[in-house]
Each structure stands twice: as structure tokens, then as C-alpha cells.
Write a structure and sequence with these properties.
With 528 residues, this protein is of the alpha+beta class. 50% of the residues lie in helices and 20% in strands. The chain has five domains: 41 residues, no CATH class; 96 residues, no CATH class; 92 residues, PAS domain (Beta-Lactamase, 2-Layer Sandwich), CATH 3.30.450.20; 63 residues; 156 residues, Histidine kinase-like ATPase, C-terminal domain (Heat Shock Protein 90), CATH 3.30.565. The chain contains eleven helices and 15 strands.
Length: 528
Amino acid sequence: EELARAKQGEIVVIQDWANDEFRALVHLDAFADRYLYVARSVDGGILSLLDETKETVRLYQQLESERGTMLFNFGLLYLGFALILVLAAVWMGLWFAERLSRPVGRLAYAVGRVSAGDLDVQVIEEEGDDEIATLSRVFNQMTHQLKGQRDALVDSHRQTEQRRRLFDSVLSNVTAGVIGLDAEGDIDFANRAAERLLELADGAAEVPLAIAVPEFAALFERLRDIGGSAVQEEVRLTRKGKLESLLVRMSVRRSESGRLEGYVVAFDDVTELVSAQRMAAWGDVARRIAHEIKNPLTPIQLSAERIKRKFRSQVQDPDDLDQYTEVIVRQTNDLRRIVDEFSKFARMPEPDRRETDLVALLRAAVMLQENGQPSVTFRRSLAEGPLMMELDGTMIGQALTNLIKNAGEAIETLHEKSKPDGHVPEIRVSLTVDESEAVIRIMDNGIGLPPDRARLFEPYVTTREKGTGLGLPIVKKIIEEHGGTLTLEDAPVFENNAQAGAMAVIRLPRAPRKRGQRNTGQTGQGEK
């Protein structure tokens, strides 16, 4: 084998460690089948070192050839360990983060519920004394306190709202007017009665009282000047042609510490009360006048007639005597008529209620005045068929006749004062009926109602020179004795007439009311 290798041109080295020899075999190219064989004795230790060196070189070469693979494997091993460590760190971080974030998340969710108004929410309290556990306990205590405070506030607000609604309801429905003022005297609040009685506009708030209601200014200044707690006075004012008597009381509104917060103005309409007192006083006067005057009237009249019969033949000019006695008798009759009017007003008899046809009464009253006022055109608009109601026919007939007669006299007064061109005297009478009441309207195109209509329902107040001022008070008393109301309003303008007259409106309840029971509607004023 060595020869074949040497023949191929390779220097064959043969190591004979057993004999401590080192041989070499080389093929001689100049000779065929000739080889050079060289042998040399070598120390065995050196040869062992040489082998070890070769082995080390081979190992180094092997390691050098396998270095990339080893580096790659080591890198993979390092990467694996690193990945395991990273995953372990991430898992540990997530575990710690979850342990920290879970209570924080519960707190965040609970805070969201609290912000939405749910104060019943509670979080799970963590065990321990760390910050998270302390925060959970404090949060639960906070929500519990907030819930208690909110419930107390809601209950207090509910009670306050109930009191406010009750206060507003009472002030809105009370018949007395109430106005609240601030410390400067500007209007803060006015209830419905105040707006109705004073004709206050919707935007009257923040307006000084002296501008909104000038009639109250003097009383308000007096309250400020005297520095007292309250003042009271009867104030008269006119709204829409109606004179109203108001009993006004103003008081100071102070806080618990005594600081001035504003003023309260309370007033009530005492017009009807004053009118009733005046009517009662006039009734007493009428009874006294009737008692003192009526008794001597008959003797005076009889004495005048006897003087006429006894001395007529003895005087030189009997016509003068007749004239004088006729004057006495005529004036006596006039006084008797006035006394009769006094008596009727002072002692109005109780209505004798019976089933009476109101339509027939109204037609009879219109027919009577048609005959007495031939120059006036009458127009009727009455309900169909009979309307049976419990009335005193005599008293209602008297009232209707008086009102229609007043309408004719208003037209007569217009012609006496102005004589308008093309004016056609006309009186319209209508009767409308519903389930609760019958409404009678008597309209004319006469002189109309005066601007000051406040006292025209009072006794002895009249706009006519020859009137006694007792007609309308008697009519009003008759209507009220039947449980109805009488108002006087401006009449609508008739066709072909520019003059707007007056309209009397009678409202009679179809169901009879007991004595003393009255309608709550306001009574208008005015007399023709």
C-alpha cells in the first residue's frame, strides 16, 4: 500500500513507534521500480508529542470547522434561555399588574357608577394595610356618606318643593292680592289676584312699585319714612273705568339676622264691603226719612184741599188759590213718590218664588215699553218656548221694565244733548239659556255709560237730572235676591250707527240659590 502511494508521487511517512523509528518512502522517477527508503531512529517521547500535536491540530481544525455551528447552537441556546426569562418576566409582570390593576379597575368602574348617580355601589375591600386596601375602604365609606347626604338633600328638597308648591298654590288662589318687593322697592312677585285687581302686565317683575301701581307710592314712602314694621290704609284706584276700594297693608320683610330683605304688600278688594256698608247706611237713612216725612204728607194734602174748598168763594182771585193749592198737592205727591222709593229700597220684600215663564215676563216688559216708546225700534232675540224658573214675577218684571225704560231714557238724553244725524233709536233685547243659567242682555245705542262708573249702583247716584238714583240699586237688589248678578257694560255698535250705548247683562241661575248665596263674578258699574 505504501509502495503504491509512493509510486503515485506521494512521500509516504511511516511511523514505527514500536521500534522508535521514523521512515520515509519516495518513488524515484528516474528509475523504474526504484524507491528511496530512508529510516531514522527517533525518541519515542518526541514522537508522542508530535502525535499529540497533530491530534491537537486536527482537533483545532475540527473545532474551527465546527465553530459556526457551535456559535449558532450557543446562540439558539442563549435565545431560548433569554426567551424563557422574558416570558417568565412578562408573566410575573402581568401577574403583579393584574394584582394591582384589578382593584384599580373595580375602583374605576365604581367611580363611573357614582358619576352616573348610583351611590349604592361598593367595591371589594382587599385584605391588608396597603394603599389599595385603604383606598377601597375609604371609597366605600365615601359612597356611604354621599348616599346619606344625597338622601337627606333629596328629602329636604322634596319637603321644600312641597312647601313651595303649597305656598304658590295658596298665593295663586287666595282672593287677596300679594306683592313681594325687594329692598329697593322693585316688584319680585305678584300673585294672580294682584295681577287681576291691579291690571298688572306679565312683565311687571323688576318694575318699581311706584311705577307699576302709583296709588301705592305714598303709602310705601310712608312705610320707609317711619321705619316701622307695617302700615295700613284704604286706597282707592280706578282700573278700566271701575273704582276699586282696596285695604292695603305693607310690612317689612327681614332676615333672621335682622337685615332688610324687602317688603310685602297685601291688599284685598273691599269695594263690595264698602258698598254694602254704604247701602246699609242709606237704607237706615231711607227708613228714617220715610218715617219722618210720610206721616205729615197726608195732612198737608188734606189741609190744602180743605183750604181750597173753604176759601175759594171768599178770595177775590180763586184761580190763584187753585194754582197755589195744586202746587202744594203736586209737591206733596212728589214727596210721597220719593218716600215710596225710599220705602222700596229700605224694605225690599222677600221674593215670592213660583214657577214663572221668564220668556213671557220679558216679552210683556218689552211690549209695555214698545207702547210707551213709539219712536224707538225694538229688536228681540228670545229663547224658543217657555222657560219655567222659580222667580217672583212681579219683582223680575219690575226690574226688566226699569232697565228697558232706562235704555229708552239714555237714547232720549243723547238726542237732547247732541242730536246726531241719521241716528236711529234702537233697543235690543236677547235671552240665551244654557244648562246652568239664563242670560238677559238689554242693549241700546243711547248716550252710553259715563267714564266714572264706579258708584252708579249706589243709592242716590244718578246721571239724569230728574233721576232719584234708586232705580238701579233696586234692580240690582232684586236680581241679587234671586241669586243672580247684574252688570253694566259697553254695548256693541249697532249697524248704521256710530254711537255705542250701554248694555245691561242679567244672569239668573236656573237652579234657585239660597238666600245670601251670591255669584263670585264681579259686578259691573254704570247707569244710564
